[in-house]
Design goal:
about 475 residues, alpha+beta, Cathepsin D, subunit A, domain 1, 7 helices, disordered C terminus
């Protein structure tokens, strides 16, 4: 009996400590296997950022340009943790370039918003307006610094609450301040000059299960999620806000983990750029990667808790294996398009592929990429057969095979380029980007400290909706 009482007391302490950061209460649909939402590429016809005037190769080239900006931002954050800027603290995500979005429903009754889904940052923040004169928000509002798009009005929700300055959640913010009302205010500055500020709050989030993604049309409601109610945003448009999917305590993943039926895990399956279908973003038990050929590698602890970092050991083409330099961390990031590797790997990789691929050489547009071929005289469908697999060796003995669609992209009509670039002083950290992750089921498990990769036909993970359908 005394032992039972001690166990119950310890369990109660654990529950109380968890509730101090996030009092999440998830009401999971039947089966309790988690939920899936649509993962929308920014260039998809389903995205508010879709530019119908661009050709498919032009969209890839634009993504490559954004990729260099984001890679530089991630790298700077990784090598200079918590480095202050001239304007104050620069958050972990030091640039706003992004590649994927997701729909969230916030409040009671819910307001539907489409926000950046970012695996390189933690804080959830959404654009807010305020129709009333309540404390905190009315004083913080800046009508001249509001972006277009949907704005959440907390005065119309029965479940909205402001967060106190002495809360654990407030202490997790990189830069926070207190007003006379003792409510927690946050400020985030980004490397491209963008800036968001507002009030840390809690609200109920509702996620509609993706049709066809093993769901039955049910919804998942999560109460008391900490998020930044953004009353000021200055900079380039970023949709209706941002949902952090990183490894830090304020991310959606960590907050969902407060409910033990879901755990701190998520996965996605990215369709190739050329496929007119959406990808699926999965949470909870549904995020388990059990597909044939799955390989698992351990996460490396980092001071930048938002980043998912694994060990890069080698790159192999055919029977040629090139060893990575000692201590080669690799950031797994869905928001970076290209893959960035040490020059000691990229140079022999380029040389080996040049000798194996029997295609005429071509000039890289804007010299962004190290190896390009002229495929204007090759029939569609034949190019992939001419490109050898590339195997990336990771920590724990995991080996991830990259097919042609993971290593080469058409960046202009008739020009096919290697979607891998060398690290430099500008990009000192290695990154495996989303092209390399296409047609893979990639699962992140923060509780186990692992990332799992498996080949998959991602177009079947989510139905192909009509482009005119609402996102």
């Amino acid at each position: 009996m005394p032992g039972t009482m001690v166990s119950r007391a310890l369990l109660l302490v654990g529950v109380v400590l968890t509730a101090q950061l996030c009092a999440c209460t998830a009401y999971v649909g039947s089966g309790g296997d988690g939920f899936s939402v649509e993962f929308i590429h920014r260039d998809s016809a389903r995205s508010p950022f879709h530019d119908p005037s661009l050709t498919a190769p032009a969209r890839v080239l634009e993504a490559a340009r954004r990729s260099t900006v984001r890679a530089a931002a991630l790298s700077r954050s990784y090598v200079r943790v918590d480095a202050p800027s001239a304007d104050g603290f620069v958050s972990e995500l030091t640039s706003t370039p992004f590649e994927y979005l997701m729909a969230v429903n916030i409040g009671t009754p819910p307001t539907r918003m489409v926000a950046i889904a970012d695996t390189g940052s933690d804080l959830i923040w959404l654009n807010c307006s305020y129709g009333g004169d309540g404390p905190g928000l009315a004083a913080a509002r800046d009508a001249d610094a509001q972006p277009p798009g949907v704005q959440f009005d907390p005065s119309k929700s029965t479940t909205f609450r402001l967060v106190d300055c002495d809360s654990v959640a407030c202490s997790e913010l990189p830069e926070a301040s207190c007003g006379a009302d003792s409510k927690c205010r946050y400020s985030y500055s980004y490397g491209d000059g963008s800036h968001t500020s507002g009030v840390l709050s809690t609200e109920t989030f509702t996620f509609a299960d993706a049709p066809g993604a093993r769901g039955d049309g049910t919804t998942t409601r999560v109460a008391n999620v900490n998020f930044g109610c953004s009353t000021t945003f200055v900079g380039s448009s970023v949709g209706d806000g941002l949902v952090g999917l990183g490894g830090g305590d304020l991310s959606l993943v960590s907050q969902l983990g407060a409910d033990t039926s879901l755990g701190r895990r998520f996965s996605y399956c990215l369709v190739p750029y050329s496929v007119k279908a959406s990808s699926a973003l999965n949470f909870g038990p549904r995020a388990a990667v059990t597909d044939p050929g799955a390989v698992t590698t351990p996460l490396i602890p980092s001071q930048v808790k938002a980043y998912y970092i694994v060990e890069l050991r080698s790159v192999k083409v055919g029977n040629k294996t090139f060893e990575a330099p000692d201590r080669s961390p690799l950031i797994v990031d869905s928001g970076t398009t290209l893959t960035f590797l040490p020059e000691a790997l990229v140079d022999p990789l380029v040389k080996e592929l040049t000798g194996r691929i029997k295609l005429p050489p071509a000039q890289s547009p804007e010299r962004l990429l190290p190896l390009c071929f002229d495929v204007s005289g090759v029939r569609e469908g034949q190019v992939a057969a001419m490109i050898p697999d590339v195997t990336v060796g990771l920590g724990g003995g995991a080996a991830v095979t990259l097919k042609a669609e993971n290593t080469f992209v058409e960046v202009q009509e008739g020009t096919l380029c290697l979607a891998v670039s060398a690290m430099s002083e500008q990009f000192p950290a290695s990154i495996i980007g989303n092209i390399a992750q296409q047609n893979m089921h990639v699962g992140y498990d923060l509780d186990k400290g692992t990332v799992t990769f498996a080949p998959a036909a991602c177009a079947s993970s989510y139905p192909a909706p009509s482009p005119s359908a609402s996102v």
